[in-house]
Amino acid sequence: MDTFLLNVGHQPVHVPLVQLCATGAVMPPRKPSAVLVTSKAVVRFVPRIGSLLKGVRTSAVGQATADALEQVGVRVQMVGEGGGLEALERLEVRIGE
Q: What is residue 10's DSSP assignment?
């Protein structure tokens, strides 16, 4: 984005308004049958994500999230292009699973 803005005569200014941090929440006691991962940042904050999601049907909201997950060994079955709902629909998650 910076390059584009510079090329059209603008000077980009970065102002970090949000800071990502781990919540410290405890993982559920049993493995889920399917998960939707909404941010590639999860890889940074959940170091064991690869082993935690082994064998779990996994959907990622976008390609960047899918790439980050796959780099740590998570097999992503579905990459959504239109948001989380679309990714879940394509993964065919059924209520009660």
A: -
| Amino acid (1-letter code) at residue 25 | A
SS3 78: strand
Asked whether the beta carbons of 92 and 85 are under 8 A apart, the reply is no
pTM: 0.70
Q: Is 84 exposed, middle or buried (0-12, 13-18, 19+ CB in 10 A)?
A: middle
- Amino acid in the structure at residue 13: V
* H-state helical runs in 1-97: 2-7, 42-45, 49-52, 63-71, 84-91
For 75, half-sphere exposure in the C-beta direction (CA atoms, 13 angstrom radius) is 5
Average pLDDT rounded to a whole number, residues 66-72: 96
